[in-house]
Structures are given as structure tokens and as C-alpha cells.
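Question (not urgent): is this output format expected?
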Amino acid sequence: MSPSAESPHTPSPHSLSPRGRTVVLVTCCLSVVVAGLDTTIANVALPSIQRALHAPVSGLQWVVDAYTLVIACLLLFAGSVADRFGRRRMFQVGLGLFSLGSLLCGLAPSLEALVASRALQAVGGAMLNPVAMSIIATTFASPGERARAVGAWGAVAGLSGAGGPVLGGLLVSGLGWRSIFWVNVPLGVLAVYLTRRFVPESKAARGRRFDPLGQLLVVTFLGPLTAAVIEGPRHGWSSPFVITLFAVAAVSVSGLVVTESRRAEPLVDVRLFRSPAFAGAAIIALAALMTLGGFLFLNTLYLQDVRGYSALHAGLLTLPMAAATAACAMISGRVVAARGPRPALVLAGLLLTAGTGLLAGTGRETGAWYLVLAYLLFGAGFGLVGTPMTTTALAGLPRDQAGVAGAVASTCRQTGAAIGVAVCGSIVAGGSAGFIASSRIAWVVLTGCGIATVLIGLISTGRWARAQAGRGGRRQNTHTMEATR
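Got this back:
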């Protein structure tokens, strides 16, 4: 029997027992563990990878961004493919590709092979989170059960990402940098087995049409843009190569706006950005994830290369950041439910600003208490920002647009993380005064992202934005009804 064939033991979504639904949830959580860990765990291993593979700073940027960038490019496409061909089938394919990519990462003999394997990992990773959410939504029919399942899945996602630096430090210190990739293989194989045995197959009643031109334009926008930022210091910002990359990105994003606005079922629905609330949430997603991507990249190099800490010591030192992120992620939902998204967004932006601002003042002899305070503030801000950001993105949109809006917002988050690494790495690589002086400039840029979160949060949750969201939602409903006639 082929891996994608239906197993005679696989139940339908509606016949699952409570225990069966729990197994499905555990399987989906396993997928988010492996995918979530790889967004952060690799950062702890960067100094070890640099020494082992003789990698320049730009090479380290590609080790991180090859993963986040490919996921950003394929998230929207993966969701539509799963809806059309079967979520269980594509989930297994994603887990298989992710596990194979992880194995190849651990065996990579060169930097180029490692970057290519990270890209293969990401092709599989792009199929995991959006498809897992669809499986959960299909499996848990009642609103109460679904809310609890989504909450558990989200908590595991947050903890896996936040715990990546600590687990990475343990693995790198004990078994070497290759072990951070090998640990994914048994987890992935287990998830494939559980998916094949217990997860029911499901498809959308009507699959969305494929949009190959839209997908091509997304790739030719995000890929050249990130490459230009990473390679700028090495080739020169005025070099024909870098200028060409920026030009290709500019032409692609212009083409994306024009072509997608004319399609009935676009890959990227640019009409969503007519809502100030959604557009603001998308900018906040870019800014907030830029701070996280830049923070993880800069802080790892600072703790291990400048301060001389081991990977384990560096991971443990950032544990307060992970704890604050997890705690404030749980608090954020209650704040939003009681007071709306504005207070949480503004407080999140202020905390991100304070944390990155403190880190801009670090040096070779900065005390541990100072670092821990900065990590606590940063972690609290990042933990708070997720729920109000999502709530703002969905404000005023029709319910049947929630999936598309969520996918676009997820793409913005992945893009922000990739750009954060690219920008901060390029600032450090292009500086001539040493890491400390150059990184201060990068930290100031990230502080600006925190300030932008505050300002955009105030604008996108104000009275004008709420009124525009309401009108936009009515227009979108009208457009949807006309398109389905």
C-alpha cells in the first residue's frame, strides 16, 4: 500500500472516539514541535556551524533564512493543495520531506549542502502548520472542543519555539551541532505512523483553483529581496547583482498586486489589505517577527562569540525570555477578551522596544542581571503580541475569509523573521568597527520595529480603522456573493 493510500483502519472524522480525537491532536502537536523547534533551535548552533563549515556571516544568515523564507513562499500554496488533494495525504508528505531534510542537514558536508537541506526541510515544514490546523478544525466539530484543541496546539507551538534555544544548547554542547537536526527524524517518523494509522482523510468541498502565476510572483518577490539584503555587504549595495535582485523583487510585487486583484480566487487576496485593521496587523506581524528573528541571530553570536559562553550556557541564559513568552502568551488572550486588542498591542510594542533598547547598550562586560532583564522584557512583549495581532487581522472580515486572512498573516510572520535575520546580519557583516559597535546599530533598528508596533497598533485599532473594517467586511461579503452566483 502506498503511503498516501487510505488505510482500512483509518476512521472518518465523524466516527472518531474522544480518545481517537486526542491522538489526532497529539499527532498535530508533534508536527508543530518539530517545525517550531527548527525556527529557533538552529540559531544556538550557528557559532558551531560557522567553525565546522568555515561559514561567513552571510552563510549563517542563509542557514536560518533558507528555512523561514521557503516556508513563507509556500504557506499559501500548501494550504490550497491540501484542501484539494487531501489533508492527511499532504500532511504525511510534509512530515516525510521534513524528516528527510533533517537527516540530510545532519549529514551535510558543506555549507551549501546544509542550506539546500534546510530548504528541503522547509518545503515539508510549509505543509505542516496550516494543514494541521485544518485537520484539527475538521476533527473537532463542536466549538468548545475545537477552541480547547486550538488552544493546546497554540500552546505547544509557542513552547516549542521558545524552548528551542535551551534544547539546542543541550544538544550542541552534548552531541554537536548535527544533533539538532537528527532529533527531528524519530519524531517525524512517529508522526507519519500516527497520521497513517489514526488521522482521518478530509478535503475541502470545493478546492480553490491553483494560481501558478501568483505563486511564481511570491517566490520572485521574497527570494530576491532577502538575497539582496543578505548579499549586499559582500557584493556591494551598488553592484549590478544586488541592484538586479532589488529590481526583480520590485517588478514581482507590482505584478503580484496587479494580477491578484483581478483573479476571482487569488493566491494572495490583496483586497484584504483595503482593511486598515488587516493591513496594520500585517505590518505588525512583519515588525514583531523582525525583532524575534534579529534578536535570536544577534544574541546567539553575542553570547557565544563575544562573551565566550558555551551553547548550553547561552541557551540557559535565554530561558527567562522563553518563560516570559509562554506566560504572557496565555495572559494575552484574557487581556484581549476583556479589553480588546489595543492595550495588549501597545504594551507588547513598548516591551519589545524596552528589551531591544536595553540590548543596544550591551558590551563585553555587561552583567548577567542586565541581560536577564532585557530578555524578560523582550519575551513578555513577544508573548503578548500574538493574540491581539491575530484578532486585529480578522476584525471586520467575513467568516469565510478567516482561513485566507490567517494564511496571509502567517506568511507575513515568516517573512518578517527572514527579513530580520537578513537585515541584522547584513548590518553586522558590513560594519568595520567590530561586532559590538555594529550590533548596536542592528539593535536600534529592532527598537524601531518595537516603536512601529506601538504606533501601528494604535492606528489599526482606532475608531477610524474599526469603521473602515466594518465597511470593508460588508463590501467583501457582497463581492463573495457576486462571485458565487
